[in-house]
Amino acid sequence: MILLSINMPTLNIFITITCLVIAVAIVWRFASRRRELPCPAWLHWLVELDNPFTQTNRSAFIVEHLGLAPGMAVLDAGCGPGRLTVPVAKHVGAAGAVVALDLQSGMLERARQKVAAAGLNNVRFVHAGLGEGRLPRGCFDRALLITVLGEITQPKAALAEIFAALKPGGILSVTEVIFDPHFQGCSTVSALASEAGFVIGKRWGHRLAYVQHLEKPDVA
Q1: Is residue 220 part of a domain?
Q2: Which residues contact 11 (CB under 8 A, 6 or more apart)?
Q3: Would you call 48 exposed, middle or buried from its count of C-beta atoms within 10 A (0-12, 13-18, 19+)?
Q4: Nearest residue to 54 (alpha-carbon basis) of 214, 212, 208
Q5: Facing residues of 200 across strands?
Q6: What are phi and psi for residue 134, nearest 5 degrees?
Q7: Which residues contact 79 (CB under 8 A, 6 or more apart)?
Q8: pLDDT for the residue numbered 117
Q9: Are 133 and 161 in contact (CB under 8 A)?
């Protein structure tokens, strides 16, 4: 009983935060059906934290399965507050490079702060949306779309641009989780990816929370 009473405040806080996150997700999901609503910059804290309910959405899991090596070039598309930008930049090292792209200047500013705090100098920030033609062609070994695809107005154009930006043999890692208001199912992602020219690669997780790798064919 004493142990229970000691843990009750922590449990209450956890339950309150969980209910708040679920409520925000439900409202956001219904509102998103009427117009595009990317996560606003003032809610950066909501997407900076690893989801406690699913492993596949955690930054360590995503990075671990990317097969990164020093010197690689990586595109963090829809980087948000830089949850993946920082660990990826650390993995590719000073000889590597990360391009962090986002449509919202507030999110990019938060990502800049985190990159600076980590003492990293291998990250370039691009204020743009996918599909606008701002990405160089054939430059990236890896690309990331972490719960972003459903927020994009023109997903076909976005995936076509990422496909062109990847090197032959490059990999696009797509992460989706049901808690995200813009959640995209496996079949939707696969159909869009195939149309863009990707080969469907490995997938981890299950249909409600997964990481899907999409490969650009190696013409060599």
Answers
A1: no
A2: none
A3: middle
A4: 208
A5: 214
A6: -90, -10
A7: 85, 100, 101, 102, 107, 108, 111, 144
A8: 96
A9: yes
**Which range among 8-12, 23-27, 45-49, 190-194 shows the weakest confidence by mean pLDDT?**
23-27
Convert the pLDDT of each residue in 125-174 to its tens digit.
Answer: 999 999 989 999 999 999 999 999 999 989 999 999 999 999 999 999 99
Residue 111 structure tokens: 């990502």
Domain range for 181 is 38-215
Q: What does DSSP assign to residue 149? A: G
Are 113 and 16 found together in one domain? Answer: no
- Please give the tally of structural domains in the chain: 2
**Structural contact between residues 69 and 98, judged by C-beta atoms closer than 8 angstroms:** no
Query: Can you name the residues that pair with 213 across neighbouring β-strands?
Result: 173
Is residue 218 within 8 A of residue 184, CB to CB? The reply is no
Does 104 share its domain with 1?
Answer: no
pTM equals 0.80
First to last CA, the chain: 67
**Half-sphere exposure (Cβ direction) of 205: Cα atoms closer than 13 Å:** 23
Phi-psi region of 84 (alpha: psi -120 to 50; beta: other; left: phi over 0): alpha
The pair of three-digit structure tokens given for residue 39, joined into one six-digit string? 């996560």
Give the strand pairing for 209-215 and 166-177.
antiparallel
Same domain, 131 and 63: yes
**One domain, residues 42 and 31:** no
**Residues 1 and 78 both lie in one domain:** no
